[in-house]
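User: Hi! I have a protein structure encoded as tokens and I'd like to know what sequence might fold into it. I'm fairly new to this, so please keep things simple.
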């Protein structure tokens, strides 16, 4: 019989079977794509290509899948769509703030130290950074407009996600069949074509045309793909859930996507790679309800680490650049990677402990009434 630390270790590796609401494979892939994005942002000295940014597509597509799942499993509509949408966006924003606020504080400290700022200067920067705190970057309230604002690197992703969800959710909820059957395919084709024609790539982030951030097209496109992936999976899952050929194809498609991160490919290959990712995600969703080796606490945990890792790694890199003259070597990259991953893991553990403590206090107060 196991006891002590070995019991906890085994529980960590094999436990949480009740958490079937999540998919362990998707959570692991989230972590792996976050690692790829982390490596891409590091000062280049080894071969990580621009295609690594397609990891962002995976995050947005999965958001679209979960959005579709929420709409599909929701019981009879008891409130208007505007109220439902606001509740959904607020719940998403709360989950982002758990890690965004600490990242914002760290960025403020780095900026204060690097620029030798006084208290009043910091307060002034905080005031003009309010749009950043409200995730309004992607609507034009960004650092180019508000010079000196405190900007957490890569937080455009969170801003674009919330705004994109606020657009897609009510459309999909109003008429799911119309959205997934007609509107979503049109949005995908229009967005991909527009981005390619104007920028030569779909992997844009802060690209403003006439004051409009076209990265929102990228976000909405990916969310729409996620919705289609979910709908397709519901239609074919009974036929291929246990199909070995489908399982093999899923592995091959993910392998192609990850291989593209290290291969020099033209921008015209981005769409085929995105299609590979979408088909792979669809096949993964088909087996979401089936028991899997990946349905373990360790993979759920790594999935949780992906968001704080996404926010933290650029801050770690900025802090290292303040200390070291050159970080373009393997030893510095190893330090960067360890600090980023361990820091993100600690963020998840601390936030979990704080949440549990808060819920315990809240429950005791309720019982005392």
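Assistant: Happy to help. Inverse folding works backwards from shape to sequence: for each of the 369 positions I chose a residue that suits the local structure. Here it is:
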């Amino acid at each position: 019989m196991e006891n002590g630390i070995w019991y906890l270790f085994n529980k960590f590796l094999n436990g949480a079977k009740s958490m079937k609401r999540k998919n362990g494979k998707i959570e692991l892939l989230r972590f792996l794509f976050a690692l790829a994005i982390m490596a891409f942002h590091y000062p280049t000295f080894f071969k990580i290509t621009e295609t690594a940014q397609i990891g962002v597509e995976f995050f947005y597509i999965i958001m679209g899948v979960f959005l579709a799942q929420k709409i599909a499993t929701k019981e009879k509509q008891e409130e208007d769509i505007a109220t439902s949408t606001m509740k959904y966006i607020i719940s998403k924003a709360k989950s982002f703030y758990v890690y965004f606020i600490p990242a914002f504080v760290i960025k403020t400290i780095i900026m204060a130290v690097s620029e030798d700022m006084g208290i009043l200067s910091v307060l002034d920067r905080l005031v003009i950074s309010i749009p950043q705190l409200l995730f309004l970057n992607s609507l034009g309230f960004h650092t180019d407009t508000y010079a000196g604002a405190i900007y957490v690197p890569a937080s455009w992703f969170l801003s674009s996600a919330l705004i994109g969800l606020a657009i897609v959710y009510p459309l999909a909820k109003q008429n799911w069949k119309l959205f997934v059957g007609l509107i979503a395919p049109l949005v995908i084709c229009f967005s991909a074509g527009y981005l390619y024609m104007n920028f030569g790539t779909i992997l844009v982030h802060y690209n403003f045309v006439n004051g409009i951030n076209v990265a929102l097209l990228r976000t909405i496109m990916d969310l729409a793909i996620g919705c289609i992936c979910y709908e397709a999976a519901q239609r074919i899952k009974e036929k291929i859930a246990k199909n070995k050929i489908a399982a093999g194809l899923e592995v091959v498609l993910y392998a192609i996507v990850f291989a593209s991160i290290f291969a020099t490919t033209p921008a015209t290959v981005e769409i085929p790679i995105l299609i590979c990712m979408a088909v792979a995600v669809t096949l993964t969703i088909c087996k979401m309800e089936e028991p899997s080796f990946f349905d373990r606490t360790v993979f759920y945990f790594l999935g949780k680490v992906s968001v704080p890792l996404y926010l933290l790694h650029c801050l770690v890199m900025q802090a290292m650049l303040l200390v070291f003259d050159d970080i373009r070597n393997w030893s510095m990259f190893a330090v960067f990677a360890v600090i980023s991953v361990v820091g993100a893991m600690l963020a998840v553990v601390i936030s979990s402990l704080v949440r549990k403590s808060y819920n315990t206090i809240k429950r005791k107060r309720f019982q005392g009434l």
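A useful reference point when you look it over: Residues 330-368 form the longest helix (39 residues). Feel free to ask if any position seems puzzling.
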